[in-house]
Amino acid sequence: MIKLVEINEKNWVDVIFLSTSENMPTICEEFVASNALSMVQAQYEKTWTTKAIEKDGQLIGFTMYGYSPVMDYFELCRIMVDKKFQGNGYGKEAVQLVIEEMKKIDDCKEIYLSTDPKNKLGKRLYENLGFINTGKIVDNEELYVLKIK
Questions:
Q1: Which domains does the chain have, with CATH numbers?
Q2: Tally of CB atoms within 10 A around 103
Q3: What is the pLDDT of residues 95-146, one digit of tens each?
Q4: What is the structure's pLDDT at 16?
Q5: DSSP letters along 62-84, please?
Q6: Most buried pick, 52, 101, 105, 127, via CB within 10 A?
Q7: In this predicted structure, what is the pLDDT of residue 24?
Q8: pTM to 2 decimals?
């Protein structure tokens, strides 16, 4: 079973080095911004929540979610599972955990996310969880929505 955990002074470096890339983490990986960039963004844009994804005491991924004042909606902004742990269903479990957390936010009636049109696995995962492609493009990514309330 996986869970979302706080990022703190003991684990933040480990979170930064989680990567979807075969190489060292970069600022922008193939389908997601780096965890380091996301953590810095959340320090300056206070509407975001960042969490590490943990399985049996080991960090396996990262997520960032919250309210986007620029877009004026609640968003699952970042979700990633480290390359060493992909293909085990952890991404699906993690997205489900984030959805449950976001359901607790009073004003959150819809959750938006965007993904690269080439991210076939991600799109299939989101659609299987009930996200619907809005047909809109935001920053060259396809915009999806999940109605929750």
A1: 2-147 (3.40.630.30)
A2: 12
A3: 999 999 999 999 999 999 999 999 999 999 999 999 999 999 999 999 999 9
A4: 92
A5: EEEEEEETTTTEEEEEEEEE-GG
A6: 52
A7: 63
A8: 0.90
Distance CA 75, CA 82 (A): 21
Token digits of residue 121: 């696995």
Residue in the block written with tokens 């979807």: 20
What is the spatial distance between Cα 37 and Cα 142, in angstroms, rounded to a whole number? 21
Contacts (Cβ under 8 Å, ≥6 apart) of 10: none
21 and 28 Cβ atoms separated by less than 8 Å: no
Distances (CA, A) of 105 to 62, 67, 102, 119, 149: 20, 10, 5, 28, 11
At residue 20 the predicted structure's pLDDT band, cuts being 50, 70 and 90, is confident
Query: What residues are paired with 58 via a beta bridge?
Result: 55
